[in-house]
Amino acid sequence: MASTDTVFTGSIPALYDRYLGPLLFEPYAVEAAARLADLKTGALLETAAGTGIVTQVLAERLPPTVDIVATDLNQAMIDFAGAKPGLARAKLRQADALALPFEDGSFDAVVCQFGAMFFPDRVRGYREAYRVLRPAGRAVIAIWDSLAHNPMTRCVVDAMAVRFPADPPRFLARTPHGHFDQKVIRAELAEAGFGRVTVDVVTLPSRAPSHRDAAIGLCQGTPMRGEIEARAPQGLAAATDAAAEALAHVYGEGPIEAPMQALLIVARK
What is the pTM of this model? Predict the structure, then answer.
């Protein structure tokens, strides 16, 4: 069930974890955990767990009486997450979020941070989350808002459009930031069976130690890397330099900060 936008190989998990974790994912992991603060016992499933960035926050903040299972479609991501000592309490396994290998009603909560946008069939993914939830269980889902509300990422997308004017890499616009319509999200969750859905628009600061760190993360730690290399097989470094220059022009060359915005969704069974 994978699309070409879901494949992570080689060094990408390490780059993803080192650069994109602090830049984009860790702040929202804390927000997701806060929406589960009342979960004291039972079992939690995380889908599209990637390198375990959210999993680690959940493991730190939820009591040991909550069993944590984390899955991802990509074995390379699971392997990287499995080497983290902070994830010792979590059970990690490769699994497709659209065909979960768990019985009906197995979990009290399902978490999916910035993964649903990658699903080839989002309704099917939401339906699987609904299926494995126990009665009154909840799904906590994070989805990026549009590029208009995520200026650091937009800056890199614009820089790639300048570098490749005939065929700009559109991964970041197409997939992570391409599924933010709240009416569509609510309709898809309702079709999957969820009856009570709340959507919070959450704006947080995105911070990087330097403009270059942000450029490396976005150009080399995401599947946009494959788009760049398809257009210029030896051009990844030059494209990263172009992104870094664009970021430095806007934010300077020292530690940089910009707002980022996402939708935090709680859907109850």
Answer: 0.94
CA distances for 95 relative to 40, 152, 170, 261, angstroms: 25, 32, 27, 28
Instruction: Name the nearest CA neighbour of 245 among 166, 160, 164, 167.
Output: 160
Task: Work out the number of other CB atoms within 10 angstroms of the CB of residue 43.
Answer: 18
Q: Please report the pLDDT score of residue 12 as a whole number.
A: 85
Q: Coil, strand, or helix at residue 63? A: coil
Alpha-carbon separation of residue 12 from 5, 177, 210 (angstroms): 13, 20, 20
If DSSP codes are grouped into helix, strand and coil, which group holds residue 166? coil
Query: What fold characterizes domain 4-268?
Result: Rossmann fold (3.40.50)
- Measure the CA–CA gap between 118 and 268, rounded to whole angstroms: 22
> What is the per-residue pLDDT across 162-215, written as a single tens digit (0 to 9) for each?
999 999 999 999 999 999 999 999 999 999 999 999 999 999 999 999 999 999
Distance CA 156, CA 50 (A): 22
Q: Which amino acid is at 150?
A: N
- Confidence category of residue 8, pLDDT binned at 50, 70, 90: very low
Residue 6: the pLDDT is 37
How many Cα neighbours within 13 Å face the side chain of 267?
A: 26
